[in-house]
Amino acid sequence: MSTVRLFIQVGLFFITKRAEIRLKERAMNNNNVEAYQHMLEKAAQFIKDNDDFLVLAHLNPDGDAIGSSLATMHLLRSLGKKVHVVNEGECPKRFSFLPGFEEIIDLSKISLNRSFSAVISVDVADEKRFGKIGSVIADDAQILNIDHHPTNTNFGVLNVIQPTAASTTEILFDLITAHFSPQLDSPTANALYTGLLTDTGGFRYANTKQSVLDMAAKLLGYGVQPDQIADYALETVTASHIELLKYALQSLSFHYEGQVAIILVSQEDMKAAGASKDDVDGISSYPRKIEGVEVGALFKEWSEGEVKVSLRSNKYVDVALLAQRNGGGGHAKASGYTFNGNLQAAKEDLLNQLKDIIQK
Ligand SMILES: [Mn+2]
């Protein structure tokens, strides 16, 4: 065989192999799309088949948790269904501009004295994040679990988990446009948009894909005012938030040649600043903004001996894995877990874990 023929044959072999791989990838993608659409269909059927729902999101709800809960509530109402939206604890007030916000029931203050057998859980990665809500879920309840966290534990009878979705409201938008498009109205659109805006950090994070901006554009057609929502959900801060930041920044420390930045918030800081738990929101985003920082961490002393750790990363550290290892969860670039102990112990523990992860 001449060298030229051999060369051509080897070349052809690799070209065919690459084409095969590409076809396989495309088939896998098609399968994923089909599987997703199939799950949306099942979710729609679950909604049609039931009449009396409990809708819940995770403890310490964020914009996506609240937006998803309210969008689901509006959808169910417009279908003529009964719905209770519950949360354990107060919801951050900056989302009170959303229609229906005042209807969210705080289970730490109000007891419902009943249980529910049709449950829709939105933006919750793990049942542990239900908190006290577990007490109003019937033993034989059917849970529809809609979420975008890659760490989701599939606790529902139906699990619509789409980790490529930027927010849980993106999945709800897909569900509504595919199966309930007449029900998409202004209150629903505002709730969906809020989840999308907050979980993409105002359309700045890496999860801001074409589908995100397509969805945002479509929602503007339903009366969403992007400047107003950005103002309420992202821009406006309370005076006590800034006051707390003054205290918190004094604890800022750098490690591993500036690749790790840490901020501590103690109960004392909170008291001195007159801050509520709401006021801590947003502080976790500061350490990561600093040039050269790969991992930014915020340690909040939530109660005596209980520290909430928020992790943010920039390029190569998967903080979802790190959080999972510590009993928490989240996304590759934003996650969290709870540490039992004091602030200093929590900080040292994380720094130890980062020893092998931070690249020299
Ligand atoms: Mn989310």
From TrEMBL:
<dbReference type="InterPro" id="IPR003156">
    <property type="entry name" value="DHHA1_dom"/>
</dbReference>
<feature type="domain" description="DHHA1">
    <location>
        <begin position="272"/>
        <end position="359"/>
    </location>
</feature>
<keyword id="KW-0378">Hydrolase</keyword>
<dbReference type="InterPro" id="IPR051319">
    <property type="entry name" value="Oligoribo/pAp-PDE_c-di-AMP_PDE"/>
</dbReference>
<dbReference type="Pfam" id="PF02272">
    <property type="entry name" value="DHHA1"/>
</dbReference>
<dbReference type="InterPro" id="IPR038763">
    <property type="entry name" value="DHH_sf"/>
</dbReference>
<dbReference type="InterPro" id="IPR001667">
    <property type="entry name" value="DDH_dom"/>
</dbReference>
<dbReference type="GO" id="GO:0008441">
    <property type="term" value="F:3'(2'),5'-bisphosphate nucleotidase activity"/>
</dbReference>
<feature type="domain" description="DDH">
    <location>
        <begin position="53"/>
        <end position="195"/>
    </location>
</feature>
<protein>
    <submittedName>
        <fullName>Phosphoesterase RecJ-like protein</fullName>
        <ecNumber>3.1.13.3</ecNumber>
        <ecNumber>3.1.3.7</ecNumber>
    </submittedName>
</protein>
<dbReference type="Pfam" id="PF01368">
    <property type="entry name" value="DHH"/>
</dbReference>
